[in-house]
Records
---
Amino acid sequence: MVVRRVLIAIALLVPLGVAACGNDEPDKGAAEPAATAPASSSPPPVPFVFEVGPAAGTKNLPITAEVETRVSGGKVTTVTLVDDKGKAIGGELRADGTTWVPGQPLEYNRTYTASVTAAATNGAAPETKTTSFSTMARPGGGKVGSGLYLFNGNTYGTAMPVAVEFESDIPEASRAAVARRLFVKSDPPQVGRWHWHSARMVLFRPEQYWKPGTTITVRSGLTGLPIGSKWGDTDRSATVKIADRSLVLDVDNATKKMRVLLNGQVIRELPVSLGKPSTPSSSGQMVIMEKAEQTVFDTRATDGPNGYRVDIEYAQRLTWGGEYVHSASWSVKDQGVRNVSHGCVNVAPDQARWLFEQTMVGDAVIVRGTERVLQAGNGWTAWDVPWEKYGV
């Protein structure tokens, strides 16, 4: 997209200071030199520069087009966008002020007119600029399927990332553009970042776990976004709550115990049995992804003669690869002593039921000291990446 930027600058004329030169004593009869004003320590006002886009007459834009609203020495006060039938489109400015984002996908093969008003901080009169552009015809080709792992109105644990997953690989060249069309707001505000954990999954999290009681509003605005040779499938949105408490399950292979921490305080310790050496549990920072009071583990299709089928109670998923915290009556004698599982965290039935009643999707689970390191993208591995390395 070629954008012609229209700049309006108000130059501020600053008079040059005049320095007097001469002897220590002025000539008798000469006029006393005029006193000079003290130099100001304040920097000069920033010139007012106001740009809008797309350039007037731009054609064939994707329906994810945004109105450019870059301003220095002032701020945008209003933006209006109407289609060629006079219908107004709502939206809002990005936090960095570079663009105004329509609150819904634009329509294909339509013309839009944007009007932007900005006020200068140096006292100059506000400026209003308009531009018009048209969108492309509905494209052919395939769509990239996407999913948002947040369900409107639900409540999640404090470690819950915003998880967006795709049905096919996202090319590296498209990932920044995809992430830019993913919007997260939190109340109270908390700074966060997106990070690609695989070619099909991008996760958003703040530096620390969400503050208890936070409200999170998310929009995945991917309808019609060019992604390689394909197009984004649809917009998705959700508003969710973070629980008013923080719960962390901390599992240590050295002690074969799980500490359950509520708001930072240990409320119970449970003996566990982890994965045996041939099928070790993963060490890392994980998140409870789903819960089921009853389910069936059936590995015969993948493990062949070594596979098994067994009924499981109080299962809490940690990885896509099939690691869970769950009830295991058959390993009670081993719990707290030795590792005998196929990679899961085994807990006694009564303890598993109690634990199941305390947890929710989005609670943090930390496993330490096993023979296997958690693989990036094997589950919601947002917290397993140091903050200084987190970002797109």
Note: The two ends are 22 Å apart (CA to CA).
---
Amino acid sequence: MSTSQTASSGASSAPVKTQGAGEASIAELLFGNIRSYGIYLALVLVIVIFQILTGGRLLFPNNVVALFQQNAYVLITAIGMLMVIIGTHIDLSVGSVVAFIGGVGAFAMKNWGMNWMLAIAFMLLIGLVIGAWHGFWVAYVGVPAFVTTLGGMLIFRGLATVVAGESIPLQSRPFRAIAKDYLPNILGFWGGFDGLTIVVGLVAIVLVILSMVRKRSKALSAGVKAEPMSWVIIKCCIAVLAIGYATYLFASSGNATQGGIPIVLVVIGLLIGIYWFVLNRTVFGRDIYAVGGNRKAAMLSGINTRMVDFKIFLNMGLLTAIAAIITLSRLASATAATGQEFEMDAIAACFIGGAAVAGGVGTIPGAMVGALIMGVLNQGLSIMGADAAIVKTIKGLVVIAAVAYDLISKRKKA
């Protein structure tokens, strides 16, 4: 199996070449991508259910902002976990590493007087070191990732207890602003709505429409079955409604002095764009899919599988450090208990989003939708005041259902 073949198998939205140009029917598109579209429908269904159960409070503008601020760790760590799972591995140490890195950062700022920007660089460096530590054992010693990261979970939870103790409060206002503040309101308020948010929303709508039309044109010119124009129009209408409504919610969030786009949402957006490009447009991304799809074939094709595994965990360490920075900024204090079950939320998001248990399959958009489903579950149950035990039970059932669906789908195809 070649690298390009494996990479294409990992992207569920890739078109299938036929004997000439033409248009696929809407039925072919729906049934051929039922898993991809099903994830989006599941997200809408979950939102509708909790909107009803919370008496309409779930989609209050400030609650939507809180959804991203409080669940940023899921979105960020799910990106790294997706790459780990595609590569046929798993990382159980995420929550403990978040607690340890957050504890070290808070300790450095409070006890060493370290500048907040220098502290961020320091925390990112620690994340890379931890990622390299895990990558070394997995890639070059051959210890299974499950065992390596299980050990890491215990090691870094213990170190977090030593460093953070009961709690280390933070006083740095600029650092705390990362997870709590908004982009500067440079365009003012337009009739009570943040002007910058409205402009960004309009630009996003235009870019999405141009992207869909361009994708169809490229498919036709390449001799590949393209989506019918009627289907493109339907997708554009749905995208306009979704982006327009999200723009309304963010533009009307905040208070009389600030609101609009939260800083943390910009960080998440940049990470999604960067890693979508990495997985779909770089050699490293194609190598991850190749290794996950068939490791022996990848080795025979000349791919350095050990280096790929090492880079996967190095990257996981970096993204975990970013999640630690966001979490520490939001909580404004570091404790040894921070990050409990973060890894479970990230793993669940990937499986819900279509990542295969056996590896080799998964997409950034799918993982982000899965992370949003987990975020809506967290937010909705929190608004309802549900007991923590109920929250865990529901999450567990969702994970089992997602994995079971993946396995059943594969059996049917076989």
Note: The chain has one domain: 24-181+262-413.
